[in-house]
Design goal:
Elements (H helix, E strand, L loop, with lengths): L2 H23 L9 E8 L15 E9 L6 E3 L6 E4 L3 E6 L2 E5 L5 E2 L5 E2 L5 E7 L5 E8 L14 E7 L22 E8 L5 E10 L5 E8 L2 E2 L13 E4 L12 E4 L9 H12 L13 E4 L11 E7 L7 E6 L4 E6 L4 E7 L1 E3 L7 E4 L2 E3 L8 E3 L8 E4 L1 E3 L5 H33 L3
Parallel strand pairs: 11-18
Antiparallel strand pairs: 1-2, 3-28, 4-27, 5-6, 5-9, 5-23, 6-25, 7-8, 9-10, 9-22, 11-19, 12-13, 13-14, 14-15, 14-16, 17-18, 20-21, 21-22, 23-26, 24-25
Helix pairs in contact: 1-3
Amino acid sequence: MSFQQGLSGLNAASKNLETIGNNVANANTVGFKTSQTQFADVFANSLTGASGSQVGIGTKVAGIVQQFTQGNITASNNPLDVAINGGGFFRMSNNGAITYTRNGQFQLDNMGYIVNNSGSRLTGYAANAAGVLSTGAPTEINIRTDDLPPKTTENVNVQVNLDSRKPQLDPANFDVTDATTYTNSSSVSVYDSLGNEHVLQLYYVNTTTPGRWEVFGSMDGITLPPGVPMPPAATLGHIQFDPDGKIIEGSTSLAMQGDALTPINLNNLAAALEAATGKPVENNADPAFDLRLDFTNSTQFGSAFGVNKLNQDGYTAGRLSGFNIGADGVITGRYTNGEAATLGQVVLANFTNPNGLQPLGNNEWAESSVSGPALVGPPNSAGLGVLQSNAVEDSNVDLTAELVNMITAQRVYQANAQTIKTQDQVLQTLVNLR
């Protein structure tokens, strides 16, 4: 009798409906991957070998397989929401227990770790205070909230056009307070070892030697080099142009360095400021303030003076104002001083057989012997996807397809129930034979 076939069909159809119901229930679950029930037929072993007349004894569930296809990516307002576009899983740590997820809904906990809703911590490569990534074993990512230390200015890049039509002047007459003793000037803010800002003013004097310009300087209004008492103004150096108005190699940089005669000595500068203003001025920073002035690509053309580029590499201290996660997983912090620093890098993990992962719930999976070991690396490498911040990956459940599958599963259930009913009627007929 085929009660066995009908019963196995009912069980299989019921399991299929459960799978479909689970898919439908998680249609709005971020990072959820739809499942598919797969079946296999069942035959009894035959003592006489293969037989063309052998009838199967029903069906069974061969497995419930998740479909790791890409879900749609939807923008969000949370900067810590991250979507994976492509292969891979986020690697999470919960007290050392490693799990994997496609759900990128993260937030910061009270200790500065990036965590998901179940409290597991996102892992990746840590960065030291200099922003250098340690690409060894992944660790739990912690966002440093300490201040970014100041950086002393070492290089000042200046790109100017000095007007060749300007009258020639005698550099010996230079006076920072008399604009008629220099041709043009420019200024830039520089920073000492404590992040204190100083205004460096550069003065350009067109000399009687063709193409030669003497460069003088002042800092915070004090002529360089500062001294007690103030010495006569001394040139920081000169820049030389060829007949075509292009700067000659070898005169593109002026190094304001030295020992006792260092043009910028902050102790001497503080003393000179105190003498000039009559107010106490102290310098607590490193007094040795060495600068390199780079005039590469400066010109001397017959056109108006202009500053095309003027920047420096120092900055004051800054506090973390926010951070973002790039497509390559690098976490970049933004600071109140306008600087940026690398805080870490998110890593992804992939598997030879993702279908072998063990589902744990909470949108997480665990590695198993069937999945193979985790292959960990930065995003956009070795087949891993790229990251998109301010976005989440939607569930890949196709509701239309699931509803159609539900109708089909319902009809299969009804058909198997009908075979049991028919067999019952046949059995009843046999029992009623007299």
